UniProtKB/TrEMBL annotation, chain A:
Residues annotated as domain YdbS-like PH: 108-185
Species, as recorded: Oerskovia rustica
Protein name: PH domain-containing protein
Residue ranges crossing the lipid bilayer per the database entry: 59-78, 84-103
InterPro entries linked to this entry: YdbS-like_PH (IPR005182)
TrEMBL record, chain B:
UniProt domain YdbS-like PH: residue ranges: 82-160, 283-339, 408-483
Lineage: Bacteria, Bacillati, Actinomycetota, Actinomycetes, Micrococcales
InterPro entries: UCP026631, YdbS-like_PH
Region (Disordered): 176-197, 519-545
Composition skew (Acidic residues), residue ranges: 536-545
Keywords (A to Z) from UniProt: Membrane, Transmembrane, Transmembrane helix
Keyword Nucleotide-binding applies: no
Name the record gives this protein: PH domain-containing protein
The keyword Aminoacyl-tRNA synthetase appears for this protein: no
Transmembrane segments: 20-40, 60-80, 227-251, 257-276
Length: 196, 545
């Protein structure tokens, strides 16, 4: 969902999405300290988290994205001494602070687990989602890493089934882990391959 | 594609390559020519000074000459394109080579065949031609279109392809009698329409391949009167009528005709939608055959679809508020490859445009002869019009009425031996059925409000199409358990699912015999409760007792 918006474009200048993040995740600041439980934590599943470098990477891309309106707004406000124009940098600042508060929790909420026959992916703090993808249903696996992601040595693995609704991507993996996961998923998918 | 062992530039020489019908360029190009004529006509008439006769001056010749030149160029190009288009079939695949400047070679595996359509646009019908569309599960525009062929050839080819896709070995496969499409007498220049009857037999030459047309048993048809009434009783029609009435009222009140034109786009859009649905779904007939489900429909452009067994990924039954008094239902399906067209309308994903409850259940039976439950009729009745938790259904808890004040009593699901049945919507009733072995992936979502209430939304991901199976606001523990069990059930169902080559399954023969013996056209769910479906070999027999 919101995480996904980040995933696709590690290069911030190409990415309009980070600006939307706070809008789609307005309640993420609400106190949600407890660990996920209930249906989002099936018994006997060992969750693996993703690299904490993803936090830095995401915050950096948001920061670069917000820097433009912040600087432009501030400069114009100073040059033309328009008081109301300070709204622009103020909004940018608020969004930035919001992201600083939200993104670490979002990243820590990402988890995946390889079970014998399917892969579980869990995401989201306030808007939670859990996806179960059977290995036999995978059509192909993508591994992506943009320039910023490569700098932080993280990569994204995305699973595709025949359904476009399957939103199964894991961001912030160590490159070695991404490769291992890709190969493992591919081989497991082949072993359990079924038609549509 | 691991099976593509041949070099793209060196296709196997034992393949027989065929051409499509030589009239194809004319059929494809007529719309371009018509548009050209309209544009030129408009421009000429508008550009003329008042009172001047366009036929008097020299301009007449220039215009006519221009049209002829453009037409000839277009025709020449399409003739060239026709000449470069060849296709061939072998036991495992269909190959199609197209393109003049940018050559394209496409190969579709027959064991991945999802559906075969024979489409006849209006102009093609005048020539007795048809286009054969093979859908494979590669997303939109991934199928193979063979067009145009003579209707008989298209029918033969379809029977042939379905037989091969089913895994039947056609007797004379290596020694096909078809003439290779090399010797065309008409040449690449312009194939005049008058020459059509002379050569195409040899050029198209795709007859007598040995696979007989599979016998079919008609199941139901939609009378035109009911189709018209069903369209009248839609929201779109009400919008249309209200818009027209309002406009007329405004026009009368203000005494200005001009206001009528302001809402022309709305009227045209809604009217076009209704007209499109009418023409697409006119004369809708369905039948069952060993090849799968056969659908025929269309007023101007006719379409004859064949969906092989096991290719339907999900079913949806819908009933709008205005259809409730007549108890009409609309049945749509997801088939990989059909997808959704760009404008969101689906002209080939409809299994039943409008039908009574019995007919709708019959349509479900076409797809799933065995629902895996003792009393499918009672279960589906509860799915269609039931409310609150009943004998079969588990519903959303009462606390979700805050989130969904109208439909919370309907939101629910039930699991049978073969499929998951989801139910939602109270004003517009929806029932979605997904066979276990067709589950792609599963999802669970929970927003902040839902979390406060301890509920979650369960979603099944299906291939692109009109059906998106979800149930909102289930109790989170119920939803979690459902997700876990459904993953297991889907896995087991997949493990026991038959091969893609459906004729290699034993049960199909039994199915067909049962159908042919039985002359009752009503569906089994309609009749008295069938006994518990136990033996998988004789599903329909059980269900049709």
């Amino acid at each position: 969902m919101t995480d996904h918006a980040f995933d696709l474009a590690p290069a911030p200048d190409q990415d309009p999405a980070p600006g939307q993040t706070p809008a789609t995740d307005p309640a993420a600041q609400a106190p949600t300290g407890q660990v996920p439980s209930g249906p989002f934590d099936p018994p006997g599943v060992h969750w693996q988290g993703v690299s904490s470098r993803l936090i830095t990477a995401r915050l950096l891309s948001v920061g670069i994205f917000l820097l433009v309106p912040f600087v432009l707004g501030a400069v114009f406000a100073l040059v033309f001494s328009l008081v109301w124009l300070w709204i622009v940098p103020a909004v940018a600042l608020v969004i930035g602070i919001w992201c600083v508060a939200v993104v670490p929790r979002q990243v820590r909420a990402i988890g995946y687990a390889e079970r014998d026959d399917d892969l579980l992916i869990r995401k989201g703090v306030m808007f939670r989602s859990l996806v179960v993808v059977p290995y036999g249903r995978m059509q192909y696996v993508d591994v992506q890493a943009g320039p910023l992601a490569r700098r932080f040595r993280i990569a994204q693995v995305q699973l595709h089934t025949a359904s476009p609704a399957t939103d199964a991507s894991i961001d912030g993996l160590e490159p070695a882990e991404a490769e291992r996961l890709r190969d493992r998923l591919a081989s497991r998918g082949e072993a359990r391959l079924a038609g549509l | 594609m691991s099976e593509s062992t041949t070099q793209p530039d060196a296709p196997p020489t034992d393949l027989t390559w065929h051409r499509v019908h030589p009239v194809t360029p004319v059929v494809r190009g007529w719309s371009v020519i018509a548009v050209l004529l309209v544009i030129v006509g408009n421009q000429t008439l508008d550009g003329l000074p008042a009172g001047q006769n366009m036929l008097a001056g020299d301009g007449w010749w220039q215009i006519l000459g221009g049209i002829v030149v453009v037409g000839l160029i277009g025709l020449g190009y399409s003739a060239l394109a026709w000449r470069m288009t060849t296709y061939a079939i072998d036991d495992e695949s269909v190959r199609l080579h197209t393109g003049v400047l940018f050559r394209q070679q496409r190969k579709a595996r027959l064991d991945r065949l999802q559906a075969v359509d024979i489409v006849q646009p209006l102009v093609a019908r005048l020539f007795g031609l048809a286009e054969l569309k093979l859908e494979v599960a590669g997303g939109s525009d991934s199928g193979i279109k063979l067009g145009f062929l003579k209707l008989d050839d298209a029918n033969h080819l379809r029977a042939e392809l379905l037989a091969r896709a089913a895994g039947l070995r056609v007797g004379s496969a290596p020694a096909r009698t078809a003439v290779p499409g090399g010797g065309s007498a008409s040449g690449p220049g312009e194939p005049p329409a008058g020459e059509m009857p002379a050569e195409p037999g040899a050029v198209v030459g795709h007859v007598d391949l040995g696979a007989p047309e599979a016998p079919e048993q008609p199941v139901m048809e939609v009378p035109p009167g009911r189709l018209v009434w069903s369209l009248v009783r839609t929201v779109a029609m009400i919008v249309l009528v209200l818009a027209v009435l309002g406009l007329v009222g405004v026009a009368i009140g203000t005494r200005e005709i001009g206001t009528l034109f302001t809402a022309l786009p709305l009227v045209l859009g809604v009217g076009g939608y209704l007209f499109g649905r009418f023409t697409r779904e006119f004369n809708f007939r369905s039948a069952i055959s060993p090849d799968g489900i056969r659908l025929r429909h269309g007023l101007l452009e006719t379409r004859s679809q064949t969906i092989p067994p096991g290719r339907v990924q999900a079913i949806r039954l819908t009933q709008g508020l205005l259809w409730r008094s007549a108890d009409w239902w609309r049945v749509e399906v997801n088939v990989a490859g059909y997808g959704l067209s760009a404008d969101g309308t689906t002209n080939n994903s409809v299994l039943l445009p409008v039908g009574t409850r019995d007919e709708a259940l019959g349509a479900v039976w076409l797809v799933l002869p065995d629902l895996g439950t003792a009393d499918p009729r009672a279960l589906l009745d509860e799915a269609l019009s039931g409310i609150d938790a009943g004998e079969h259904f588990t519903t959303a808890p009462r606390r979700t009425r805050v989130l969904d004040p109208i439909a919370w009593r309907r939101n629910g699901f039930t699991v049978t031996g073969r499929a998951l049945v989801l139910r939602r919507g109270r004003l517009v009733r929806r029932v979605e059925i997904v066979p276990h072995e067709r589950t792609q992936s599963l999802g669970l979502q929970q927003g902040p409000w839902q979390r406060r209430l301890g509920v979650a939304t369960f979603a099944m991901h299906s291939v692109p199409g009109p059906v998106t199976p979800t149930v909102p606001h289930l109790d989170q523990h119920v939803a979690g358990a459902l997700m876990d069990e459904q993953a297991r059930r889907a896995r087991e169902a997949r493990a026991h699912a038959g091969p893609e080559l459906w004729m290699r399954r034993d049960e199909v023969a039994a199915v067909v015999e049962t159908i042919e013996d039985d002359d009752a056209k009503t569906a089994p769910y309609v009749e008295t409760a069938p006994p518990a479906a136990g033996a998988p070999d004789d599903e329909i027999g059980d269900a049709r007792e």
